[in-house]
Amino acid sequence: MSRSTVPSKRSADAQEAAWVADEDRFVLQQAKKKAAIRVKGGRAQPVDWLAVTLAVIDPERNPLDDEIDADDLDLSAPETVFEGLDDAQLAELGKAIDTYLTLESSKSNHEYWNMMKTICNDRRKTSSDGQNTARGVSSVAADLDKLLGPKSLEELEKLEKQIRAKLASNEPIDTDYWDHLLKSLLTYKARAKLRKVSESILDARSGGLRKQQAAEAMALKSRLEARLQTQSNTLSGETSQNHTGASDLDRHPLDPEPLLRLRSEDKSLPSMTSVEFAQSITEDRRRILKVGFVPHRKRPGENGSEPVAKRSRTDGGDSTQSAFDREVARGLGENEELFTQEEEVVTKNRAQWAQQYRPRKPKYFNRVSLGYEWNKYNQTHYDHDNPPPKVVQGYKFNIFYPDLVDKTKAPTYRIERENGRKRGQTFAPAGEDDTCLIRFVAGAPYEDIAFRIVDKEWDYSAKRERGFKSSFDKGILQLHFQFKKIYYRK
Question: Per the record, where are the segments of Basic and acidic residues compositional bias (predicted)?
Fold first, then answer.
């Protein structure tokens, strides 16, 4: 009996350990997502910036789990996170770092948080030692900084081995001195590793920026060459009509007064005095010098809500494209297929905003779920080796609205049935399913879009395997649903 209980006990222990590991992994993932959300919302705590920085350099991370596009962030060097924090804030940061140390299972990520913990402890120690200058602490710290500060990471690692060997030997040495030197060396070693982390972030993002700028330069070159070619073709005609050109020049207004008038679309912009503007520039320069790298962003005018006369770009920006790419990268499930059966939308009245904005269809990436329906007929005529035809069991709609003018109003959807058919009524022949239109409606500058789907009763169950989801977040409308299963009693 004792022999039989030992394997079962081991199995139970292994299951419990696996469950605890899965729970820790889930808690860690949620903590990272919350940190990214706070960073995006401008509510970041110091530990949030450390977590986001790790997400950028973590080689094991899944890009599909990213809540924000790291290229859009003004990432600072990690050591600048500790600047300006008092002892209470450093203590709170230390506790938050301990939480990540407890949850992290990756060796490289654990080493990263150990570096942060070491630097945080050193900052706290430096803060407390600042009040003990009478005991000569500051002079000792200055001597250590002269000795260890200029050394590279490789030199510090070599010196660490020498100090550990000396402490392990039986030589008559000042143990307190060498212990103190070793502790200080570990702090400088963590700083050196952190500098390498900052350099890797800067190199990676600078390389991406160079590629982006090279592509933009080539595109600009092509446009300029095309424009110069067009101008050269019309140059001969213009030179033969100099008097006409002179008269045209006379008709152009030279009074700068219209340029000094404030346009209606600029009246809502914030205003500041010259002194405030100068202070803002000084603060921005100080921050940029510490950051070391500022990502390239689109100009404020380059958005989808800009009037037609001022827009020259196509649908979707970088954030939309990255979100669309994430959705495409998820691929198709085992029983899923792409769903692109878009239907023509009939609109009686043209939207009022169509005169100001260019109407356009939103991007989408939809899937249809297929499966077998084991009703009584299929159970009689088919088996698992010779299955029945697959039928539609649900849909996953992902519609992208990145440039809504009024972002406070979420897009909606509605079901439209033809020929006066009501919900629950069946007009289709035997063996076929009724269909209906699902129509997605949003505001400017997007047109309505519709798809033809099977008209069955939806399952609104909150069960995970049923997968009902209806949400609008980050410009993406997601509607995922399955049809209710019909159970046949024997």
Answer: 248-257
Cα(151)–Cα(140) distance, integer angstroms: 18
What is the spatial distance between Cα 457 and Cα 484, in angstroms, rounded to a whole number?
6
The count of other CB atoms within 10 Å of the CB of residue 130 is 11
What is the C-alpha to C-alpha distance for residues 104 and 25, in angstroms, rounded to an integer? 8
Half-sphere exposure of 313 (CA within 13 A, CB side): 14
Whether 302 contacts 317, CB under 8 Å: yes
How many Å apart are CA 322 and CA 256, to the nearest integer? Answer: 43
149 φ, ψ to 5°? -60, -45
Give tens-digit pLDDT for 37-89. 887 777 778 888 888 877 776 656 655 455 555 555 556 667 778 877 888 88
Strand partners, 432: none
Query: What are the angstrom distances between the C-alpha of 134 and each of 139, 144, 170, 210, 282?
Result: 10, 18, 35, 52, 37
Report which secondary-structure segment, H or E, holds 441. Answer: strand 435-441
Distance, in Å, from the CA atom of 44 to the CA atom of 119, rounded to the nearest integer, reads: 20
Nearest of 245, 198, 234, 223 to residue 77 by alpha carbon: 198
| Interacting residues of 362 by C-beta distance below 8 A, sequence separation 6+ | 315, 399, 400, 401, 440, 442, 446, 449
* Two structure tokens written together for 22: 């899965």
Specify the DSSP class assigned to residue 390.
P
In sign, the C-alpha dihedral spanning 38, 43, 48, 54 is positive
What's the pTM? 0.40
Distance CA 482, CA 463 (A): 11
* CB of 360 closer than 8 Å to CB of 315: yes
| Higher-scoring residue by pLDDT: 231, 445 | 445
Looking at the DSSP bridge assignments, the partners of residue 449 are: 440
Over residues 367-379, the pLDDT tens digits come to: 999 988 888 888 8
Given a contact cutoff of 8 angstroms between Cβ atoms, the answer to whether 41 and 73 are in contact is no
| Phi, psi of 82, rounded to the nearest 5 degrees | -80, -10
- Give the separation between CA 112 and CA 193, rounded to whole angstroms: 9
What are the pLDDT digits (tens) for 101-146?
Answer: 888 888 878 888 888 888 888 888 777 665 554 444 555 666 777 7
Cα–Cα distance, 488 to 432 (Å, whole number): 19
Sort residue 242 into left (φ over 0), alpha (ψ -120 to 50) or beta.
alpha
